[in-house]
Amino acid sequence: MLEALKNTAKNAVGALLTEGADKASVSVYHTVTHEFNVDGGEFSLFRTLFDKKLVMECLKDGRKGTVSQNRYDDETIASEAKSCLGSAASAMQDDCWDFAPVTENEDFVQGELKPDTERLFLRCRELLADISARYPKILLEQAIFQHKETTSARANSNGVLFSEHKGCYEIMLMFSGHEGEKASSFFVSMASTPSLDKPFIELGSFADDLKNVEKQIESESVEGKFEGTMVLMPGCVRDLIGTLLMSFASDQGLLSGTSPWKDSLGEQVADERVTISLAPLDERIVCGKRVTGEDFRAENFDIIKEGRLNAFALSLYCANKLGLERGLNDSDSMIIAPGDKSLEEIIASIDRGIIVGRFSGGAPSSNGDFSGVAKNSFLIENGRLGPALSETMIAGNMAAMLKNLRAISKEQVADGSMVLPYMAFDGITVSGK
C-alpha cells in the first residue's frame, strides 16, 4: 500500500508537469476506520469505513491551481491534472506561491497500525460501566470509539517524497447530567491514544469533565457585574488561546495587518511564565503530523517563549509575502508549559472569579476584545469553589489577558492532541442577571 501510494503521488506530479505546470505538489491518502457507536448508553453500530483522497496543486506563471478527488486511478489523475491547470489559469498571479525544496526524504511510522477490535470493544464496555458506577447522574448521549489507520504520501516536482503510516484510537463522548426534571447543558470531551493499555476513563480530561457536568445539574446566576479572575480549564485554554494565536500570530491576522503583534517579534507579549509551543513531535502527541501541507518536514517550535514572541505560525506563501520566516509546522498540537502552583492553590488565591470549561462567543475584534457566554462554569469566592453558574457572560481583551496572568497550574491535561494546564487571568469582567 505505502509504495503504491508513493508511486501514485509521483505519477500525479508527472501528469501535472506534462500538462504544462511549472511546479507541482501532490498528496494521496488512504484511511481505514473501525468504529463502535453508542447512543443513549447502548451500543448501536459497528462499522468499517474506507476513504481515499487525492489533492493536486500546481503553479503556472505565478498562478496556483488546486483540485481534489476521492479517487486516484490513472484516468482520474489524468483528468484532474487538466482541471488543476485550468484552475491555475483563472487564478490571480502571485509569485509568492511555492513548494518546499527537497532536503531528506523519509518514511514515518507511528502508533498501533492495526486495530484490536475485540479489545477495543472491551475497553468501550469498561468505560460505559465506569461512567455508570462513578457518575450515576450522567446520560451518555453519544459515544464514538474509533481506530484510524492512515497511509499517505506527498511528492512534489522539487524531488520531495514523504510518506506517513500511522494508527491510533480516538474517543468522543457527548453527555449531560440529569436528575429528575433537571438537566445540565451537554458537554463534549475527546481523547486519542496510540494503544489500548489504559482504561479510557484515565485518558485526557474524561474523569474531570464527567464530574463537573454532574455538578452542573443545579446552577445559579451571578447577580450584577464584577471584575475578577478567570480560570480556564484546559479544554477552554485550547479554544481561547487557539483563537488568539490564529488572530494574532498566523496568516489571517498578519496578512490583513490587523494583528496587534504584527511588529512585535522578539518583544514581550505575555507574562514571562508563558511558553506556548506547536510541537507535533512531542511524545505526548498521538500520531502528530510529520509533514506539513507545503511538503516540509515538520519541526517543533515555540510561538511564545518565556513571554516573548518568538515566531509566527505562517504558511510559506504568507512568509514570502511578508518577508518573514515560515512556521516550522502547520499543526494544532499546542503545548503550554506548566506553572508552579496546583489548581487548588490557584483557586485559594482568588477572592472572586470564575472557572470556565467552555466558551461560546464570536471571534475577537481586531484588537483582541472578546465577549461571550461562560459554559460549564463555576463561581469562585473567598478562595473556594462555589456553585455552578448559568446565564453568565465574560469579557476581556486577549492581548491584555496574557500579560495579566495570575497563575499557571502544575497540572496538565494531555488528550493526545494537546498538552495544556489550567490558566488564571485577572481583569476579566463577569456579568450575570
Question: Can you walk me through this structure?
Answer:
A hairpin with a 4-residue loop joins β19 and β20. The chain has helices at 2-18, 74-89, 117-134, 206-215, 234-248, 251-256, 316-322, 343-348, 398-403; strands at residues 23-39, 42-60, 63-69, 107-111, 138-156, 161-179, 182-183, 187-193, 219-221, 225-232, 276-278, 301-305, 308-309, 334-336, 352-361, 369-381, 384-390, 393-397, 405-414, 419-431. α1 crosses α2 (74-89). 23% of the residues lie in helices and 41% in strands. 44% of the residues are buried. The protein folds into three domains: 2-215, PmbA/TldD superfamily (PmbA/TldD fold), CATH 3.30.2290; 219-238 and 338-431, no CATH class; 265-336, no CATH class. The strands form three sheets. Strands 1, 2, 3, 4, 5, 6, 7 and 8 form an eight-stranded mixed sheet that branches. It has a five-stranded mixed barrel with strand order 10-15-16-18-20. The protein is an alpha+beta fold. The model has no long low-confidence stretch (mean pLDDT 95).
Please name the defining characteristics of this protein.
5-stranded mixed barrel, 433 residues, 20 strands, alpha+beta, PmbA/TldD fold, 8-stranded mixed beta sheet
